[in-house]
Amino acid sequence: MPDRDRAQVLEVTSLRKEFGDLVAVDDVSFSIPEAGSLAIVGESGSGKTTIARMIVGLERPSGGSITACGHDRSRPARSLADRRRRGREVQIVFQDPYTSLDPRQTAEGAIDEVLRLHHGWPAGRRRARVAELTDLVGLDERQSRALPRALSGGQRQRVAIARALAAQPRILILDESVAALDVSIQAQVLNLLADIRDETGVSYILISHDLAVVRQLADTTIVLRRGQVVEQGPTARVLDDPRHAYTRLLRDCVPRPGWKPTRQLARASASAGQADPDKEAPRG
Amino acid sequence: MSDPLLAIDGLTVRLEVRGARRAVLRDVALTVRAGEALGLVGESGSGKSMTARAIDRLLPRGAEVDGTIRFDGRDVHALSGPDLRRFRSQVAMIFQDPRAHVNPVRRIGDYVTEALRTNLGASPADASRRAADMLAQVGIEGGPRRLRQYPHELSGGMLQRVMIAAALLTEPRLLLADEPTTALDVTTQAEVMAILDELRHEYGLAMLFITHDLELAAAICDRTAVMYAGQIVEIRESGRLHDDPLHPYTAALAAARPDITRAAGRLRAIPGRPLSAFEAPAGECAFAPRCPHVRDACRAGPPPLAELGGGLSRCVRAHELRGKLGEPANA
Q: In the structure, what pLDDT confidence band is assigned to residue B243 with cuts at 50, 70 and 90?
């Protein structure tokens, strides 16, 4: 393993989450080194977002442990100080840039609030840091002072990334954060994320259904199906030489030059153990 | 060659936005032959959905429309009464979010058989039988039971297949598909695309397939049109789009996508952001502000959509740049 010498910023061991009778996450373990990036890949209902929510503290695990920067976070925070420390360890950027910002708060205001809360710096220092962060994510002065409604989707996502970085987290969870962006903007944000990692040493957890995005940003990849890890390894190996039929299926379903969709692919999906599409569980 | 099934010429659409008239489509021209699949690819604001809405006469109130849309030789915007009803039964539309287009408190069967009963006068029993048969064709077994279910009892992928079944039941000649698989998982997308492709060939159905995904359009459509800022910038045989693009925007769009087979050091992002028709410069090439190949000639006037190598390109340098646009890929 190449990562054994590097300090692990996040260790997840035998993580489990049950919702009533449904086991949403079943015995999932992984670790991420400093400045590393791990992708969690899977389809709807695979449990990938539930894992993210448990790491960030929005959902309480039914079993297993989560350790970030040496601190356990599988149980709720016991004090305000504890809660804020957790906020400085892990931050999350959600998929939808249209609902994740306060419509009455400018980009500067949103970033400043996080700086005040987490670092308690005086106004002058906060102002300087706000300028650094907006510059880092490529927002100009007008955009930094604009309300979300005056910004495009890509610009809003930059605000959400700058706001998450304001807490100086060691781990940033990107939950489908580039999925809703136009192709030309998505490339800009992916380049930006690579730059930020080089500059700050932050680690990424990339929750994604898009294998090309995963290839671009993640060192290691976990393939999740119905809450269970079916394959885990270096991203290049998992995508070039998948060992599990389900990983192969996911890869073969990606359109590319010469690709032809066939119903056989869908039948392969059933034989790879996925629920027969005709017997899918009803959604509530 | 026979006349195209759908022919759009000089289509310009202006909408009233906050008191001002703003163009959303500018001089759009395209044709779809009977049985042909044409992909319509673009980013947000490019006008791809608006084009479909114009064809199906679903434009917002107060829209100002210039140019012509002909279906089977007849001007679509001049149709009324029985002619309009006949047109509607021949042109079906499916959307990105099936859940937003079905009534959640009505049964699946009511939705699927509605057009058969109201437009074509089928009896309820006959409509239900035909609906169950069509559900089987889109891969949904147990039709009669499914028809009694409600939308919330079906997954997104299954509901999209129900939409397709409903769209095909009136035996349309043209299907307008607006991002029908964008909200679906990749395996479900592959299945839905396979079903569409198969049934389209079986019924000789023409399709206008709208998507942001260049690779998906190229894979399933005979030809692909690329839109930018309310204009068509390129139309090309899908098989050649990737290796021999005719417009810098098409090439830039393909190069900006990350590649599943290898990680790039840096992605070749397109600077700036996609522009809507009314934001784009009017007296020059709309893509000029973001184009890596821009020259003075590009600023001299809006370039026409001109023929080149069996395709069409709205680039004054297309001839000169030919063969140089496909590479280099991401460094």
A: confident
